[in-house]
Amino acid sequence: MILTRKTIELTQHLIKRNYGISAVLLSKASDPIQQLFVDKVREYGLKSKGQLFVDATPSIEKEYKDEISKAERHYGGGKGVDMKKFPDFKFSQPKIEIN
């Protein structure tokens, strides 16, 4: 009997909580500022698909390319070198002379 009462109380609590949460999620945005925020988030999501930067000016893109090329030169990259690939290490056995 005690286990059943606890189970019923827990179930009632979960139903009330889930109903309260789902009511908020299913409601429309009635606040104009909230609706503006939702619209801007959706707009940003559409703009950001497939782009490196959102609303980037040509100077920002040029600065980005310059920094990437500087890092490639500094760390041994260049044309035809895949900087994302892990480097291959080759260790050879030294020749030891025994006298």
From TrEMBL:
Mind listing the UniProt keywords for this protein, alphabetically? CF(0), Hydrogen ion transport, Ion transport, Membrane, Mitochondrion, Mitochondrion inner membrane, Transport
Among InterPro entries, the record links this protein to: ATP_synth_f6_mt, ATP_synth_f6_sf_mt
Any one biological process term the GO annotation gives: proton motive force-driven ATP synthesis
Q: Is the Ion transport keyword given for this protein? A: yes
Q: Which GO terms describe its cellular component?
A: mitochondrial inner membrane; proton-transporting ATP synthase complex
Q: Where is this protein chiefly located?
A: mitochondrion
Q: Where in the cell is it found?
A: Mitochondrion inner membrane
- Coiled coil, from the record: none
Q: Name one GO molecular function term.
A: proton transmembrane transporter activity
User: Looking at the record's lineage, which domain of life comes first?
Assistant: Eukaryota
Regarding protein family, the annotation reads: Belongs to the eukaryotic ATPase subunit F6 family.
Q: Under what name is this protein listed? A: ATP synthase-coupling factor 6, mitochondrial
What organism does this protein naturally occur in? Varroa destructor
